[in-house]
Amino acid sequence: MSGSNAGAWDAYWQKAIKVGFHNKEAEHREIEQFWRQFFTCQFEQQSRTVILELACGKGAVSEIAHQCLEKSSICQPPNQNAEIEVRHYCLDYSLAAVKNTLEKPGLEGGIVADAAALPLKNNSADLVFSQFGIEYAGRKALLNAAKIVKPGGRLAAIIHHANGLIYQHSKCSVKALERVMQTDIFPLARRAFTAGFEVLNGNTGQETFVRADSDMSVAVKQITALLKQQGPSVADGIILQFYRDLGDMFNRLQVFEAKDIANWLNNMEDDFSSHLQRMQSMLDAACDKEAMAFECQQLTAEGLSIEHCEEIASHQGILGWKLIAKA
After folding, report:
1. By residue range, what is the domain housing residue 170?
2. Do residue 97 and residue 198 come from a single domain?
3. Are residues 177 and 89 part of one domain?
4. Are 114 and 1 contacting, i.e. CB atoms less than 8 angstroms apart?
5. Same domain, yes or no: 12 and 144
6. How many Cβ atoms from other residues are within 10 Å of residue 248's Cβ?
7. How far separated are the first and last CA of the chain, in Å rounded?
8. Does residue 149 contact residue 121 with C-beta atoms inside 8 Å?
9. HSE-up (13 A, CA, CB side) for residue 121
10. pLDDT exceeding 70 applies to what percent of the chain?
11. Order of strands, edge to edge, in the sheet holding 317-326?
12. For 58-69, how does the pLDDT look when each residue is reduced to its tens digit (9 = 90+)?
């Protein structure tokens, strides 16, 4: 993962965890079913195992793994004395993500590292899994992950699809955010707010303010047209929220401090830039059919057998690729 994209994701997880964000990607019934079936099957086959979630994010899949482990332990036959013993770890580039995942039950430890350069020994885990994460680390990340899987163990992943719903959403978000940035709304807003405060403080006349207001209104009209065309939820609603707050603050300028407005504009510009980087990184990470075929060839050359490599979809469309490989 590039430094700028990694920074954008780390900032995202820090903020998301702070506000109690819930990861909607884990809410798809089909994806959750895939993981529940996978973990239930694996825990039934092995009583002692080391499992690792790569690019864990908020640990949605680790949580499912723990629930399946608990259920498997309860449902063991009475004559089966061996307890299911699992050592459960997580790994992510973001310290905030790792810390949050470690708060979930069942985890023994976490590692802050790039999935492109795993600081782990070969043949050190029985199950390695990732959901919409490992592909961000580049095309060699799956191969690197395969090397740490013990013989007989499995590597499982849900991977972004280059024609899937998330890809389409990200593509739309990137275009919308770029259009907003191209209006120069942030420098124009700074100029208009500064001129407005100068008038309120009696430091200048109306002429400068009227000109700055007129210049900003051109950008605002362009954003208005974009929201009408793309809908209020475009780019996860960040554009609409900014649009509303901008109008509210500008219309009630007298109740705000100039430094608070300046800080808000700086933070919003950073949020737009970070959101754009994250959406673009999703587009860059997504795999088409040819890319997945290449990944499978690489894994096969490493000695793994591909048990599943196919699309996973809902009634709305393609959600991603599901991959299971046995070492």
Report:
1. 166-282
2. no
3. no
4. yes
5. yes
6. 10
7. 25
8. no
9. 6
10. 87
11. 107-112, 85-92, 48-54, 125-131, 149-159, 317-326, 305-314
12. 899 999 999 998
